[in-house]
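Here is one such protein, fold included:

. . .
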Amino acid sequence: MYAMDFAQVGANIQKQLDVKGMTQQSLADALQISKQVMNKIIKGSKAINVNEIAKIAEVLSTTADDLLLVSSESDNVESMSYMGTVHDEFTRDKVDLIRTAIDEIRMLEELLDV
C-alpha cells in the first residue's frame, strides 16, 4: 500500500536517513536545496513530485517505492531515548508537535544566525 500523504513520505525519508546515518542537511546539500525546504519535506508540509522523490531515492540508495510505502503500525512505534517507547497515537501526536516546535525554533535561529 502506498502513502497517500506527504507526512508518511517524509517519515519514510527520515527513516532512510537514520538507517544511512545521514542528516537532513547532508541530504539537502546533495539535492541542492536548503535545510529549511528539506525539513518541510520531512515534516510533510511541502508537496513533492515524482521527480523529487526519484532524486531523493537515488541519493539515499533506495527506491521510490520504499519512500512511498505505508509502514505497518509496529514500524510506527517510536523509540524515544528520554521517555521509552511511544505506543499510543495521542502521545505520538504530542511528541510530533514538540519536534515541530523545536524544528521551527532551530530554523528561526539559523535565519537569525544565533
